[in-house]
Amino acid sequence: MLKNLSPLLSGALLSALDSMDDGDLLTLVGSGYPEEEIVSPVIHLGEVTTEAAADAILSVVPLDCHDPAPIAFLDCTGTLDDLPDVAFAVNGIASDAELRRISMSRLELDEFVALARQSVVTVRVGSDAPPCAFLLRKGIC
């Protein structure tokens, strides 16, 4: 184990994160996300929460500071006037990691899937309640 590094960051995941270029997308999905929609290499983190995975990833991956909303999320709850708890938590984790307020955009299914298909890597967690998926745009800032 490495000092001050989340045990969720396996060698395979660290290698995938390190190979990402500025502007590349990472998709973070729960087990309920359709397998047939994933075209990038998948790293399974097992039965961990989306929040735990986001915390581990964002501890080493900078978000794009030129994108006004470097995180996009797919909200399957269908409630447009309320932010799902998991999205609220991921937003807080990102803001804490970046030491700045991070904006997120909410995408419809078709738009989310189209962007997710451009993703360099997909991280799948075992938790999918409530169902939510995220796109994280890597930056150099």
From TrEMBL:
Single annotated GO MF: D-ribose pyranase activity
Top-rank EC class of the record's enzyme: isomerase
Swiss-Prot/TrEMBL keywords: Isomerase
Ribosomal protein is among the record's keywords: no
Catalytic activity, EC: 5.4.99.62
Pfam families membership: RbsD_FucU (PF05025)
Chemical reaction(s) catalysed: beta-D-ribopyranose = beta-D-ribofuranose
GO BP: any one term: monosaccharide metabolic process
Name recorded for this polypeptide: D-ribose pyranase
